[in-house]
TrEMBL record:
Residues 237-338 form the Fe2OG dioxygenase domain. InterPro entries: Oxoglu/Fe-dep_dioxygenase_dom, Pro_4_hyd_alph. The chain crosses the membrane at residues 86-103, 124-149. Keywords: Dioxygenase, Iron, Membrane, Metal-binding, Oxidoreductase, Transmembrane, Transmembrane helix. This is Fe2OG dioxygenase domain-containing protein. It comes from Triparma laevis f. longispina. SMART domains: P4Hc. Its cofactor is L-ascorbate. The keyword Membrane applies. The keyword Transmembrane applies. Residues 1-37 are annotated as: Disordered.
Amino acid sequence: MGKKRNNTPKTTKKSDPPQTPPPSGKQPSGIPPTQSSVAPLPGLVEDNLFFLIIYASAVRMFTKHSTKDITSPAFFEESRKETSDALIKIVVLAAIALIVLGSKLRKRLGYYNKHVQAGFGRTLMSYISYIPLLAVLFSFVFVFGLTLFSNHEAVQTSRTVFKTNMLDIKECKEIIKMASRAKMNWTTDRHPAVPTVDMNVEEAFQDKDKAKLTKIFDERLSPFIEKTLGITRNSVRADDMFIVKYSAIEKGGQTGLKPHTDEAYFSVNILLSDEFEGGGTRFYQREQEPLDDYNSTIPSYDLSPPVGNAFLHRSRILHEGIPISKGERYILVLFMHIDQFDFETKQSYGLHPFSTWLNIGYMESWFNERYQGLKTELIDVQGQSLSHKYLRTIFYTLMYSTRLFSDFVGTVTPGGKFIEILDSDKTGEQGANWLHGQHMRLNEFGERVRADQTCDAGGAKLTNRGAEDIFK
Ligand SMILES: O=C(O)CCC(=O)C(=O)O
Ligand SMILES: [Fe+2]
């Protein structure tokens, strides 16, 4: 026992290799530990394994593969609830994992910086130390994706065309008559980018006719919308409702409508007549704009429904009115918005971006509306702060990525399965804002960011389906 090594501490230099202390219990008692006897780090696996096992078991518990029946009336509600529940649990788990693994990582990196010589080895060890955190991140993405895709059919709604029988032939004829006794004439300038010969119902129809239509929509269209999109009926508003007239009889009459997208959340199209040849609506598989002619080679799906049939689709699916070759084709079109707030009372409808979480199309439109709102505010108000610009960019990016996502996951398909369940569920409950609150853009607080536009106002181009396209 000549030299008391432990009493003459030696300064650890950066270049010193980490030193292993004697196993606990074997250090001579009474001798204080030296600065150089640094506890080694436990191996990466043993340090994290226990926690990762607990984490993985928790994730496993929260990950359910959905086996719900899409034809069940409760399908959307259940799916939505299931997804948002799973999402909350995953976020909480990920937060805990980040805190625990983050502190382990910090300790590890601190150790390398202090006790390991800088160089390739240290860099490599530092990178390897991130593995547990990356594993958690990966599992987060995995679980999230699984939850979403286990409801594949609902994701698919963003590219599904849902149809149902809505009117009988007598009712269809009656609506065409309503147009012929309307207060205003047919217009051609309401949608300048993709013009139609049309008549706005709210402005042109007589009050008694509007009341009849409202009743029909409350009874038949509202349940259809609720079931297909999984949203409450009162949160929807017809931003534009109009009759379109295609005529192969009148000289210079419009016979078809070129490929376009509508500027709305979703569109409804009801066929009112059957005395024509040709016609129908063509949906394109992918959103590729601009398309100038009817002879596109993009895969498409044609719908030629029977008279009185209504179909509904996300407005941003590229579509066209196939030209007629004989007779006259009348359709009733609704460009529908989904509002979070009642625009007058400001009362919330209880929706939020994830309300129809599984309906990617809804999210896309929601982001688009926020983007459009900010854009309008930016144009209207001088000296906007820069944050507006950034926020706008964020919403645009979100909108664009959800659109790409929906293009990626979905093929345009007919949603025939819904017809059965819809036909058995007609109620008389008060429905949407069918004829109230047209041509509005609301911000995230339900306030109007743009004044009402009327058909004959010069500002009609603000409400058309193409001129305000975000790509322009
Ligand atoms: O003619 C059709 O069926 C399509 C009509 C349409 O897309 C529209 O009016 O926006
Ligand atoms: Fe359209």
